[in-house]
Amino acid sequence: MNEAAPPPGYPGRLLQSFGAVRATALAVRLRANAQEAVVSLRSVLARSALALVGIVVGIGAVIALVSTGQTVKEESLKQFRELGTDIVTVRRQFTRIRGRALDLALSDVQRLAPAVPAIESAAASVDANSPIRYRGQILAEGAVFGVTGAFFDLSKLPLAEGRLISDLDRHRFYCVAGAGVARGIRDAGSTSVLGEHVRVFGRLCTVVGVLQSVPPLAVGRQLAPDQTVFMPIAAVMRAAGARIREAVARMNEGVTPETARLEVERYFQRIRPELPVTANTASQLIARMRSQGQLFALLLGVIAAISLIVGGVGVMNVMLMSVRERRAEIGLRRAIGARRGDVQQQFVVESAALCLAGGALGVALGIAVAWGICRFAGWPFSVSTTAVVAGVSVATAIGVFFGLYPAYRASRLDPIEALRS
Question: What is the pLDDT of residue 1?
Fold first, then answer.
């Protein structure tokens, strides 16, 4: 009697069924190990909590530092873009001739726009240190900027009342006060800021204008306009001995950044061949700032990851103690048929569960810290999704990695010796 032939596709369906059974068995075993891991960790809650501290702090530090670094980078780029992508920054490189340092000349900067077709306007600035006093009170420390008339338009500093500094003011001790300085004058009892006198460089300076409140700017160097007074550049250079080390310029429409950069450098090479000058366009500076921000965020992440390693060592210590305390349990499981792989899997799952719980708490801590920093600094709150995903993934990986050795020790215990302990 001939046996019936198997239906078409029978071997394939059999293999699929076998694979499904194995997957189901693995899922059941993992769920049982996870439930047992929770029970075991709760039985030594104090020890587990101490082991969690390193993981929580590490993950929280990674998320908080990376998110804050990303926010700082985006805020810096945003402020720089608000100045316009048509800005060229001119800096003199440090050089000396016969022991004397060379600096930019005010006349060279003022002739830049008429002499270079690619440039629409240019402005020089200097900063000097001097307390700003009003009626014996110090309103700000060392925030004095000497500027030319075009500086305010290039920096997009809006006027609230009065007038701005002009090139006709020259050596006169006139100043435009930032919003914070003006607020200090009013708090001292003045009803009108315009016409008041603040003491700068030991001399009285008449306030002719007040700026609107604006956030700090990256105009060549960091500038906080609210806590600054702006004076004619010639007056500051004479009173404080300040020198021009950089200037800013705006390109004409239709000019490429590279063309503007080359024309500006050729201009200074032609009139001041002894003074090396570097011109940087806004696009170059933005790309450089973005690259530096990424490097800074990476550095913060690496520093914070060190605490993760410390936390992982703590988890390994907890798991080794758990193996020592549960020798009888391990021996009993081996005696009734558990394989080495089953015991090893149990302790790896416990270690991963411990680190995963620490990762979840660390995410919450990191988000809370990042929110607090952004709120304190007045920045928009944002969390790096990459940092969150990477933090949780790294926490799980650390749990598995640092749990492998204790799990291996547990699986290698002799059942008879374990039961005798």
Answer: 47
Decide: pTM greater than 0.70. no
Contacts of 284 (CB under 8 A, 6+ apart): 257, 261
Give the torsion sign (CA, 7, 8, 9, 15). Answer: positive
Beta bridge partners of 200: 203
CA distance 195 to 188: 15
Q: CA-to-CA distance for 91 and 185, rounded, in angstroms?
A: 35
Token pair 């039961």 is at which residue?
419
Q: Which residue has the tokens 């050089």?
A: 95
Structure tokens at 33: 């190990």
Strand 144-147 and strand 229-232: the pairing is parallel
Distance of CA 33 to the CA centre of its chain: 40
What pLDDT sits at residue 44? 62
Closest CA to 247 of 129, 79, 108, 118: 108
Tokens representing 304 are 């914070």
Average pLDDT on 119-130 reads: 89
What does residue 146 show for φ and ψ, rounded to 5 degrees? -95, 125
Select, from the ranges 218-222, 273-277, 353-357, the one with the highest average predicted confidence (pLDDT).
273-277
Give the pLDDT confidence of 388-412 residue by residue, as tens digits: 777 777 777 777 787 777 777 777 7
Which backbone phi and psi does 384 adopt, to 5 degrees?
A: -75, 110
Give the three-state DSSP class for 188.
coil
Q: What pLDDT band is residue 419 in, cutting at 50, 70 and 90?
A: low
Question: Could you tell me how many residues make up the chain?
Answer: 421
Average pLDDT (68-92) is 71
Region class of 254: left (phi > 0), else alpha (psi between -120 and 50), else beta: left
